[in-house]
């Protein structure tokens, strides 16, 4: 299992604490420092079963500067979204846990973290 975190994020710290409390075997990726490539973002989206706009933090200042809320959410715009997430990793929703069964979850709740651990 791998968890993408921003250490300044309370949801990320909570997820890591729960993983530790449950004795989970996982790797931490500080995705603001170790920025995912477009290919990695595509792979995680496939594992999540989501589109890039589903994991975009549209309330961030960078998102507002880019006008992200006004971008089309369609197949033709998918790569533009992925490029934006790779270029501005702060826009990626967090934490994301990639589970051992090949799936992934956006682990913003204890239930989602437990779900990932059970996969």
Folded structure, characterized:
The structure is a single chain. The termini are close together. This protein has helices at residues 10-21, 38-48, 61-66, 78-87, 110-117; strands spanning 2-5, 27-30, 96-98, 104-106. With 119 residues, it is α+β, with helices and mostly antiparallel strands. The model has no long low-confidence stretch (mean pLDDT 96). The chain has a 4-stranded mixed sheet with strand order 2-1-3-4, with helices on both faces. Helix content is 39%, strand content 12%. The chain has 5 helices and 4 strands.
How is the topology of this model organized?
Layout: E1 2-5, H1 10-21, E2 27-30, H2 38-48, H3 61-66, H4 78-87, E3 96-98, E4 104-106, H5 110-117
Parallel strand pairs: 1-2
Antiparallel strand pairs: 1-3, 3-4
Rg (C-alpha, Å): 14 Å
Q: How much β-strand is present in the residues? A: 5-15%
Mean pLDDT: 96
Kindly report how far apart the N and C termini lie.
Answer: 10 Å
Q: What is the number of E strands?
A: 4
Biggest sheet overview? 4 strands, mixed
Order of helix and strand elements from N to C terminus: EHEHHHEEH
Helicity, in percent?
A: 25-40%
Structural class: alpha+beta
Strand ordering within the main sheet:
2-1-3-4
């Amino acid at each position: 299992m791998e968890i993408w975190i921003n250490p300044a994020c309370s949801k990320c710290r909570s997820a890591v604490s729960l993983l530790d409390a449950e004795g989970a075997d996982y790797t931490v990726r500080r995705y603001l420092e170790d920025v995912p490539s477009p290919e990695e973002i595509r792979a995680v989206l496939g594992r999540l079963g989501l589109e890039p706009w589903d994991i975009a933090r549209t309330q961030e200042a960078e998102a507002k500067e880019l006008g992200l809320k006004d971008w089309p959410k369609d197949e033709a715009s998918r790569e533009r979204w992925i490029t934006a997430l790779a270029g501005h990793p702060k826009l990626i929703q967090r934490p994301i846990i990639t589970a051992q069964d090949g799936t992934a979850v956006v682990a913003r709740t204890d239930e989602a973290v437990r779900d990932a651990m059970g996969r």
